[in-house]
Specification:
The structure holds 2 protein chains of 2 kinds. Chain A is of the alpha/beta class. Helices cover 39% and strands 24% of the residues of chain A. Chain B is mainly alpha-helical. Chain B is 73% helix and 0% strand. The longest helix of chain B is centred in the first third of the chain and has 27 residues. Chain B is globular and about 55 Å long. The two termini of chain B are 31 Å apart. The chains are: A alpha/beta, B mainly alpha.
Chain lengths: 258, 332
């Protein structure tokens, strides 16, 4: 299998703190990769590095064989890396459809001057963006809420909208940062089915950060385990489950407690 | 499809009718010079208000440098009409002077836009303040334009028709921008810049487009202002002028075309109506502003707009069609 995304000796330091240290991993085309680890293990920092929000201190990131480290986040997004955020970051004041359109817009080719003078081409792209976004919303049963403010949606709908917005970019790689945060076990299982359907429907590669172990185990083809910014284990779900280093990272060493 | 086209036609004819009225009205003698002055001021202020709203409302920054851009437009156009081509025919000279005034201010918007890439919020507000101070003290020290005494003897070329025309152009262009890829990007920056970048919004282009468009129209308004008052000096473009425009924006409503029109109209006309109160008129407007900020912090029309100011979309029927065929395929 060919790697869609690869990191080589990726390191990110914040002052003296090493958030990600010498991390080399690869994500294969079409797989779902789970990334787990205790709080503060550097999982979200990894996403922020992959999407260009922080530049790496050293090391390389290759997407489809080309280096993307140091590019502007919007450029990385346009190349096909979409993400959701741990704490939902929708454009709350804007409507549901505008949220989706903003992501879809990056595919439109119209110049600023053409837009200002509203050339026919600019008008057509407007129409294209509305129709495509509406289609996507309908597919996710959010069509009836299109004109509502995104901030007024229920928590679950906001989570769903964030995924729809990411999909509007037509990504090759989708990074999901704790999509089940704040959900009860039955909602998390629903989300599991939903993500499996999205994965198949949009022919995606997914990297998933999650604390709901049941969900990670059910969805992931492979799992990477981080602790203190370092990869401590990896493999298929069963291998990871039995790995003593993983148990140690989560529960601490034996005899440590008084 | 037909419906949208018809609506466009109706809107266009209303706008043209307005232009004819604006051109004929002064000749009929129905409006005296004073009333005409007030109407032109409303139009100029509406241009200033909608263009500042682009940065302060839609993009959510706080620029206090708008008077600086206005000054550049005013001086550039006045140099053309007073110093360089005083004898050229006004019909040709004035439109080009206004356009060049706008372009001068638009060019000055580029460095401020570039500075906004990395600087946001209070810090950007201070940069715009610095910009205003640079422009003002720069103009005070150029002998060519009269230094602190200013430029005198500017021909009175701003007619009601021209003011109306430029006002319509400003609203049309800014509406086009706001309801477009770049406009949505600008609003996304206001809501959450990191999420905007992660969703593929080229925030640098969006910020540049916002600042250049905003300052271009500030320059246009400055040019109209100069040729209305026939006299400009650097202190007509101080922080108080910026504040006046800010009041219109926050009273009328942020991120709203209708709000900009309303804010400019209400503030301009109110200041005129309150003239008899003497010094006490200085109390009324701030008092209104305080009450408004308490009960409606985003202004009268904040984040909303009248339907007739939005572009029409003939698209509901087609998206329904598509949906039907899609479900049909699924069934097969």
């Amino acid at each position: 299998m060919s790697a869609l995304l690869e990191t080589r000796h990726l390191t990110r330091q914040f002052g003296g703190l090493c958030a990600i240290g010498d991390l080399s991993l690869s994500v294969n085309r079409g797989e779902i990769l789970g990334v787990i680890g205790p709080n503060g293990a550097g999982k979200t920092t990894l996403f922020n590095l992959l999407t260009g929000i922080y530049p790496p201190s050293s090391g390389e990131i290759l997407f489809e064989g080309r280096p993307i480290a140091g590019l502007h986040p919007s450029e990385i997004a346009r190349r096909g890396v979409a993400r959701t955020f741990q704490n939902i970051r929708l454009f709350r004041q804007l409507t549901v459809i505008e949220n989706v359109r903003i992501a879809y817009d990056s595919r439109l080719s119209c110049s600023p001057l053409g837009v200002l003078l509203r050339t026919p081409h600019a008008g057509f792209s407007e129409r294209e963006s509305v129709e495509a976004s509406m289609e996507l919303l309908d597919l996710f049963e959010l069509g009836s809420l299109a004109q509502n403010r995104a901030g007024d949606l229920s928590y679950g709908a906001q989570r769903r909208l964030e995924i729809v917005r990411a999909l509007a970019l037509d990504p090759k790689l989708l990074l999901l940062d704790e999509p089940a945060a704040g959900m009860n076990p039955s909602e998390a299982m629903q989300l599991t089915d939903f993500l499996r359907w999205v994965h198949g429907k949009f022919l995606l590669t997914i990297v998933l950060i999650e604390h709901h172990m049941q969900m990670v185990m059910a969805l992931s083809d492979r799992i990477e385990v981080l602790d203190f910014g370092v990869r401590i284990a990896g493999g298929n779900p069963d291998e990871v489950k039995g790995n003593p280093r993983v148990i140690e990272a989560y529960l601490g060493t034996e005899g440590e407690l008084p | 499809m037909m419906d949208g086209f018809k609506k466009h036609l109706i809107q266009l004819s209303i706008l043209l009718l307005g232009l004819v009225v604006a051109a004929v009205l002064p000749a009929t003698g129905l409006v005296n010079d004073y009333l005409q002055f007030v109407l032109i001021s409303v139009a100029i202020n509406a241009i200033l208000c909608v263009s500042l709203n682009l940065v302060n409302g839609w993009m959510g920054e706080f620029s206090v440098g708008h008077a600086g851009f206005m000054a550049l437009g005013a001086y550039a156009s006045a140099i053309l009409t007073v110093k360089l081509f005083p004898t050229a025919p006004a019909e040709l000279l004035f439109p080009s002077a206004v356009l060049i005034g706008g372009c001068t201010a638009g060019l000055a918007g580029i460095p401020v836009g570039i500075l906004s890439f990395k600087t946001r919020g209070d810090y950007l507000a201070i940069i715009t303040l610095a910009f205003l101070m640079i422009v003002k003290s720069g103009l005070e020290n150029i002998p060519y334009t009269g230094g602190p005494r200013g430029l005198l003897g500017i021909p009175r070329l701003t007619t009601l028709a021209w003011a109306y025309f430029w006002c319509v152009v400003a609203f049309w262009v800014i509406r086009n921008l706001v309801y477009s890829k770049y406009g949505r990007g600008i609003a996304a920056i206001r809501e959450d810049e990191i999420a905007a970048e992660a969703m593929g919004v080229n925030t640098r282009t969006a910020k540049l487009v916002a600042f250049v468009t905003s300052s271009f129209f500030a320059g246009v308004a400055g040019a109209l202002f100069a040729h209305q008052l026939q006299f400009i000096n650097p202190s007509s473009f101080d922080i108080l002028k910026s504040t006046e425009i800010l009041v219109m924006v926050y009273l009328g409503g942020v991120a709203s075309l209708g709000g900009s029109l309303l804010g400019a109209g209400v503030v301009t006309i109110l200041t005129q109506c309150l003239q008899p109160l003497g010094t006490w008129r200085m109390v009324v407007l701030p008092a209104i502003l305080v009450v408004l900020m308490l009960y409606r912090p985003s202004g009268i029309m904040g984040y909303r707009d009248w339907a007739w100011l939005k572009p029409f979309f003939p698209l509901t029927p087609r998206s329904n069609e598509k949906k039907e065929t899609e479900t049909g395929e699924d069934l097969q």
